[in-house]
Amino acid sequence: MAAKNSFIVAPSATVVATILGTLGAIGLTKANFRGKGLLMAILVL
């Protein structure tokens, strides 16, 4: 039962994280705001 739940939850969490990460990356690259360079540097590190 635990393995079945893991096989359901893990891919779901991966898909949600990928979608949110992609949307966040698009927003950061297209928007111009003060401190953008610093924020990008922190995220890359």
From TrEMBL:
UniProt KW Membrane keyword: yes
InterPro entries: MetI-like_sf
Keyword Cytoplasm (UniProt): no
Transmembrane spans: 6-28
Protein name as it appears in the record: Putative spermidine/putrescine transport system permease protein
Single GO cellular component term: membrane
Protein's membrane topology: Multi-pass membrane protein
Domain of life assignment: Bacteria
Gene3D superfamilies: MetI-like (1.10.3720.10)
Subcellular location: Membrane
Signal peptide: none
Species: Paraburkholderia diazotrophica
Keywords linked to the UniProt accession: Membrane, Transmembrane, Transmembrane helix
